[in-house]
Structures are given as C-alpha cells and as structure tokens.
Specification:
2 copies of one chain form a homodimer. Helix content of chain A is 42%, strand content 15%. Chain A is α+β, with helices and mostly antiparallel strands. Chain A folds into 2 domains: 95 residues, Phosphorylase Kinase, domain 1; 203 residues, Aminoglycoside phosphotransferase (APH), C-terminal lobe (Aminoglycoside 3'-phosphotransferase, Chain: A, domain 2), CATH 3.90.1200.10. The longest helix of chain A has 28 residues. Chains A and B meet through β1 of A and β1 of B.
C-alpha cells in the first residue's frame, strides 16, 4: 500500500480537461500498488483509476505497459483499459509525474482462494498469453537469470543472517539454473506477477486481471510456474495438488502446454521461486524497521524453492499427462 | 492517511448481510482519516464508506459520533449518514473492531480555499451549531483547558528543543487562558476539527462536512475560532482579513454572534491556536523518524497564537460590528 503524492484539486481538474471523462465528483488516494500512487476517481460518467508513476517505474517502460493493457482489452481480456486523451496519447503529466487515467474494474481479490478459483486464474493466464501473441512492443524481463545474479550480489554478504548456510545454497542454485534453464520454449508477453491481489473476482467469477507493471517478454510456461508458486501453496508451506491440478487444467483448456514445456516446469518453478525469494530477501535486508511497509518473509519462497528441487516430474504438480 | 487493518472479503460479505446495502462489487482502503481505517465500497446500490475504529478512538464515544451524524443529517446538514443495520444498530463489528457503514459524500477538499469558500464554511458551521441544538447525547471536550495542561506536561521538558524559551512562554499562556477563559458563552455541539480537509466542495458549492470524531460539547464561538485559525491564514503565516470577514459574515448570516462572544473571540482564538500547537508538538516529539506519517509543524500554530495575542478586538479579524 502506498500513496506517495497528494494531488491538488485544481491540478487534477486541469489534467482532466485533456480527457473526455466527465465532471470530477471526488478522488481518494487508495492503498493499492506498491510502486505507484493510485487514486479512485468518481466522475459524472464512471469511476476511474488515476495512476501517478513514481520513481521506481522506468518512464520508458510505460508505453509497453499501457499499450499492453489496451491491446489485451481490445482482444476481450478483462483488464484495466487506459483512457486516451483527446490528442490520442495514453500518458499525461500530473504533479510532476507521468500519469494515466485507467478504467475502474469492479471485483475483489481473494484472501483465501480455492481450487475452483485457481482453475479460473489458469484459464485467464492462458487467455492473456494468447491475446498477447500479436502485441508488437517488447520488454525484456529484467528479473530473469541475469537479473537474479545482480540481485543476489546485493544481498549475498548478509544472506547467512537470514539462515545459516544460505549463501552456499543460493550460489549452487544460481549455477544450477544457469546450466539447466530451457532455451527454446514458446515465449511471449507474460504477466510475471499474477498473485492473488492482482486477480479480481465477483463471487466465484473472475472479473479481471490488474497490475501489468512487471509484464515483459519471457517463456510462457515460466508465467505458469509463477502462478503455481503464488496460488497453490497453503499458509503452512504445503503444496496443494488439487489447486495445482485445477490451475493447470484451466490453463490447458485454453492453451495446451507442449511436452518440452511440461518437462521444464520443475526447473521453471525453481527459477520463479528464486526470483521472489531474491526480491523479498533484498527488501528484507534493506527496508528500515518501522517503515510502515509490510515486509514479506523471504523464507516462504526459500521453502517453495526447496520443494521444487525434489520434484521428479510435472505430474507431481497435478498435471494429467 | 492510514489503512491499519486489512479486511478479508468473506468477513466483509458476512458483515454486509446485516445491512440492506446491496451486493458488494469492490472495496479499497483509502488514505483518509488518521485515527481509523477507511474503505470505499462500491455496491449494486451506492458507494459507501466503511470505517473501522482503531484503538485511538474510545469505543464509548462512538454512539455520540454516529448519533450526531444521524441527527445533523436528519436536520438537513450535508454530512455522512450512518446506515442502520437490519436490527437498527449503527455499529457493527468487523476484523475485531467496531465498524460502521456510512454514506459516501461526493466532493473534494480545497487545497487553496478562497474567501468565497470561507464564507460557505462559516455558514455551514453555524448551520451545524443550530442543527445540533436538540441533540441529546453529551461529550465533554477532552481537548479544552484541562486537557491542554495534561498534554503540555508530556512535552514541557523537551519544548525548548523546538524553540528556546518556549517553556516559559507556554506556561504563561496556560496561566493566562485559565484566568481569562470565558465562563458563560452559548455552548452546544461543536465540530472542533473543521479544517479544509474536512469540508467537501463541488465547484464552489460546499457539498458537505465530514469527520466528526472530535465533535463534543463546548463553546460555539470556540468552534468559530478554530475555523479562523484553520482557514484564514496564508502559508506565509499572514492573517487574511478578507477571508476572516467572509467566514464571520457567513457564520452570522445563520447565527449572529452575541456581544460577549465577539468580545471573547481573541481569547478563544488563542486557546484554539494553543490546542493545535500542543497536539502537534506532542506528535512532533513522539513520532519516530521515517514513520511515513506527515508530521505537522507545531510552529505554524505558535505563530498563530502570537498573532492572536496582539489582537485588540474582534474587529481586527474582519468582524463588522
């Protein structure tokens, strides 16, 4: 949660004159998104989200993110749709920051998702992968193999503070992944952060995907492995094969996985577990105490990583072969 | 700004079954209110505010606050209206906290209010004072004379850190106010915190007053003096007599001030300046660095206090006698 920037009413009204968005009735800073400041606007036309992009987001990436939402939305995926300004641009400027006006998606994220929800998420992820096929812009994944190495170097010296022996374990893991990482799987636009708080439901029906600010080009099956990590483990650390099965079935009902993708799944899952372990470890070691940001426990992802290490084949995730 | 408590979707849905509020479509934690956690809900019927009362609010005060909003609203004042549950109660329980569902007020607070807005605020304040006349519950003002003394004792030892000589100055001020404080002015329900962020406008039209969580019984003219302090000084510390005149005219167009109230205004304004100085001083000295809460400069109110000390009569505030 974060609202970094307050907006003066006059500045916002001026900003809105560039759009066909109706008359402004109210705006509230909302506790959503960690990288940006978000406001929920009521206008005489419809509720809208206003996003101000703070420093942590690369301005040069914004055309990719906004263009992708527009592209996916045009292909029928339910996701936030950037409103174009009268001059056609998707991006404006407000309070000294790049800013976009985005459609408001009704729905709630599930604190306790069940297998039936995992099936819907799997399906929506595959739909996103298919809908993204002809998106023309490209964005490399900064948080893939090379990125992990750089991230690890920032935390390595203090890793054993978190758990003794961690330094050696992660070094070996990075070496293993560098050698074993699949080279020729189908790739395309991936969400790369499809955690429960980025998927909205109305009742048991999935109503939309949000937060495309980690989206990039990478292996499609890697995105599947991120969702297995994010959705199919219980709070006690146990893998829930029923959820895994539902998610993979949901995914394959739209886009069947190839044999090579299936074979690579355990390695990809080790990679995605390591990726979230490393960012959480870095945040854990660098976020000051009392900073009113919820620190996420990196050990959760270390345990997931160890689980994937002892997986023999994707069947153990619940995949019906 | 603050959202202290997250709510699980299922808990919220369960909570809403006690109300005739429609189907839940979305809820977002909003950056509004410092003492409580606030959420903006969209339902199939209307937008609503859900407030969870955190520790800093006395649970025994809640019937006063919620009953007051209901009372004022019934008398035509535009303010948030608590929704009764099916059993008639205004207060429920959610995530282990007392919780209320309150109507959503469209409008925005003005970062740069002008004299015409001060006139509207004066008018609305008087309307609130009149509408509150027959409200039956009572709540003494914990932040009046006695309360200031207690608050000061917590900061006194470190006051000279903020400005040398402050200790003596504030002690003298407390003694002066104890002796000079008016005893027999008209009293009633006051808002006690009607700062710009608690008054919503749509265009130049005042659309409502919010945040009644400091409301209490005290001198009505003391509430006027709080508004003079909160609305009629410029950022550079100068008193803007045009704004003061507009505010007092607006107030008196609904409820004329008596001669004794007018005579007491400079003393009351010293009191209200001291009250906000003391709470800000306390927060300044006790809030840890990096706590992501905006600390408000106590010296702003020290300067206002000094200004009021050299006021000869209420005419200097812009009051046409």
């Amino acid at each position: 949660m974060a609202v970094y920037t307050d907006i003066a009413e006059d500045d916002l009204k001026w900003f809105l004159t560039e759009y066909d968005a109706g008359t402004l009735l109210s705006y509230k800073g909302i506790a959503e998104g960690v990288e940006n400041s978000n406001f929920l606007l009521h206008t005489s036309k419809a509720p809208l989200i206003l996003t101000l992009y703070e420093k942590r987001v690369e301005k040069s990436d914004l055309p990719f993110f906004l263009g992708l939402m527009q592209h996916l939305s045009a292909r029928g995926l339910s996701c936030p749709l950037p409103l174009p300004r009268r001059d056609g641009a998707l991006l404006g400027s407000l309070s000294g920051r790049p800013a976009a006006l985005i459609s408001f998606l009704e729905g709630m994220w599930l604190r306790k998702p069940e297998a039936k929800h995992c099936r819907e998420v799997g399906k929506a992820l595959a739909e996103m992968h298919v809908a993204g096929e002809d998106f023309e812009l490209k964005r490399p994944n900064a948080l893939s193999l090379d990125g992990w190495r750089g991230l690890w170097e920032k935390s390595e010296a203090r890793a054993d503070e978190v758990e003794p022996g961690l330094q050696g374990e992660i070094r070996n893991e990075l070496d293993f992944l560098a050698a074993a990482w699949p080279k020729s799987l189908p790739s395309g636009v991936i969400h790369a952060d499809l955690f429960p708080d980025n998927v909205f439901f109305l009742g048991d029906q999935l109503s939309g995907l949000i937060d495309f600010y980690f989206a990039c080009n990478d292996l499609l099956a890697y995105d599947v492995s991120i969702c297995l990590n994010a959705w199919c483990f219980e709070k006690d650390g146990a893998y829930n094969i029923t959820k895994g099965m539902a998610m993979l079935e949901g995914y394959q009902s739209v886009r069947p996985l190839s044999e090579t993708e299936i074979a690579a799944l355990p390695v990809l899952a080790r990679g995605s577990a390591l990726r979230f372990f490393l960012t959480r470890l870095y945040d854990w070691l660098t976020t000051p105490e009392g900073a009113m940001v919820t620190k996420k426990d990196p050990l959760e992802y270390l345990r997931k990583l160890r689980f994937h290490r002892q997986i023999g084949s994707a069947a153990e995730y619940g995949l019906s072969l």
